[in-house]
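Re: [help] complex structure
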Amino acid sequence: MPAWAVVALPLVLAALTYSAAAMDAVFRTGDGLVAPLRECARLIVQQRRRTYMPDLLLVRIGVISLPAAALLAAMVIPIDGRGVWDLSVGVVWFNAMEVVAWASLWLTGWGVNSVFPLVGGYRFLAQGLAYELPHMFALITAGLAAGSLDFGEVAAAQDGLWFVVWMPVAFAVYLLSALAMTFWGPLGHPVAGDLAGGVAAELSGPDRLLFFAGRFALLTVAAAAAVPLFLGGGAGPWLPGWAWSLIKTYAVLALLVWVRGRFPVIRMDRFMDVAWMVLIPATLLQALVVGIVVVS
Amino acid sequence: METVAFWVLAVAAVGFGVAVFVVDSMARATFALLASFLCVGVELLLLDLDYLGVLVILMMIMEMLIMAVFMIMYMMNPGGLMPMTMVHNNRGALAISIGVFTALAAGIFLTPWPPRRGTVPADPTFSVGQAIMGPKMLVMMVIGIAILATMIASVVLATDRGRYDRPSHREDGAK
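Output below.
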């Protein structure tokens, strides 16, 4: 990968993240495409509100690690065949960086020394395994079919037949758990309205900006990863590979963003039941089917 | 370059390890320990053990976050923002830990390490697995699945429903 790609990656991620925020503004509130820009400007100049005796170090680490994890995850996702960081186990790295959000939310919720953020942080941890295990099995299924944990090779293995066609369960579970890992929409309990904003309740000014930009960035990266994992990567007629990657990423991202305005927040314990009793067995069966196909 | 990175990470790993016992908050202690583990994970990446390194990073983040819940739950003051200390029995602990450290470090220097034969394999993780497990690989993988199934089954058996989350189809359950 050329050196300019290292510089270009944060810019591309920022542009995609902005468009995710803009889509959210258009779909949900009906505000224009510049609404996120206005919000950015407002938050940058807003004065920080301080709580009583916060652990500022932990709050800062928590808030900054969210966009940082999104960028680190984006490093292994290929735009045109290869990612910026050509790691042979990119899928595992991507998952590791998604899990950083556990730390981000808990640190932020704990550090501000306020009840609702603390409850929000614990909500995410309590649900962590119910989110992560189906997600992990969905990722592994794609890796199993390709015989590789390298995003580039997983995309290349779908020459002819996209994984979404013959492992729809894994794809659906991936999208659902991606919503959960980015605490978005129906799975946004940690920042939900019933907690007065949860983890983010006490965040203000630049902290709030970084936190929510980080969440949009994570959502974007999750959408971008779905393309090489299940949607054939850059494969497509006429247009070059990078263009198809972008088009597919936008399609998945639009779906994920749209879900937020369409569905209410699901009750946590209901989702926990479904995750353990339906999603995990379903992904395991999907992995079994894929395993049999691969071996035979 | 790699040597510098190795030493910086090595010193950082030990430094964060020390920090675990110096800080006065359980939350900070937990994350100092996590930072120490992450340094070790990146060290493995430097050794070209990609899979092991990334796996250590993934598992340690998950594990330490779950640990954080328990570490704070079992504290004298679970509110946690009051100062606390991670050490007690200072003299005895110091003697034991210095003794163990010296023994381990001496082991490193006294072991007659064999000289390197051959070159770096294409997939070092695979080779490490082969070297450690050898023909027992299949057995270990089956045992791994069995352990996972046991864990899930024991959680399912141990979980009794709480007061608010009875099955929704039951008459007296929460709707």
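The radius of gyration of chain A is 19 Å.
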